[in-house]
Amino acid sequence: MLSSFYMNWQHVFKLDPDRPIGDEALHEVCMSGTDAILVGGSSGVTFDNTVDLLSRIRRYEVPCALELTDPDAAVPGFDGYFVPMVLNTPDSEWLIGRQAEALTGFGHLMPWDLMAGEAYLVLNADCTAARVSGAQADLSAEQAVAYAQLADRLMRVPVLYLEYSGAYGDMALVRSVRQSLQQAQLFYGGGIRTPEQAREAAQAAHTVVVGNVVYDDLQAALLTVPAVKSSAKEQDHVF
Ligand SMILES: CC(C)=CCC/C(C)=C/CC/C(C)=C/CC/C(C)=C/CC/C(C)=C/CC/C(C)=C/CC/C(C)=C/COP(=O)(O)OP(=O)(O)O
Ligand SMILES: O=P(O)(O)OC[C@@H](O)CO
Ligand SMILES: [Mg+2]
């Protein structure tokens, strides 16, 4: 039985092992009321910087998951693991090739009950994930919905991730994608810097991921937590 450790996450902070964060800032992030810390980055992630960040986060009770982007940085001891797969790339290396290569001969080591696949639609052409994977980011809402339906209904992915890293996304597109899903959990990430954006994203997706603003403006980052949580409460009243 595969676990769904991420199922109740409404708000998540994504921390990059390749970016320095001081003890005080990390304390505030971990005590913020966020549902989880997601450790991951598109470049410069190593075994050592991942172990270092995990051990510092482990001073706190907040759940902590790792987004695997390099097999050499597969550190044991996280509460859960995500394996990203980019749907909208013409290069199957980033859809499934590198993941299969990483597993070849090592699949018996995988903590399968703690793993979840993350189907990415990378929608900001300027972000690192788009550059790395060669994603075709200029999708219309109709095209995004088509990818989402295939991933949700035919591939039955547990998580669909709309990735706008560094830029605030098209919330009408995000809402359309959410409405098209039958079983996948929708993660939204990208460019959230204000409580208003966080609230709007929480109304559009199931899980809101906040990353870069932690490093640029910690106080603004912290305000996204109550914004997402209050928006989720309002929706509970509606449904
Ligand atoms: C403990 C354990 C798990 C042991 C098992 C050992 C074992 C068998 C390990 C292998 C695990 C495995 C299957 C690894 C696969 C790794 C891999 C090659 C995955 C492919 C990742 C991928 C598709 C990368 C493309 C880019 C992408 C979608 C990245 C996602 C993360 C992301 C977007 C981070 C944000 O990036 P950031 O750096 O912040 O970028 P900005 O500049 O935009 O801010
Ligand atoms: O860093 P930002 O732009 O907040 O995006 C969050 C996350 O989706 C990055 O993978
Ligand atoms: Mg980043």
Automatic annotation (TrEMBL):
Transmembrane segments: none annotated. Keywords: Lipid biosynthesis, Lipid metabolism, Magnesium, Metal-binding, Phospholipid biosynthesis, Phospholipid metabolism, Transferase. This is Heptaprenylglyceryl phosphate synthase. NCBIfam families: GGGP-family, PRK04169.1-1, PRK04169.1-3. It comes from Cohnella lubricantis. One of its GO terms (biological process) is glycerophospholipid biosynthetic process. Its cofactor is Mg(2+). PANTHER family: HEPTAPRENYLGLYCERYL PHOSPHATE SYNTHASE, PTHR40029. Homodimer.
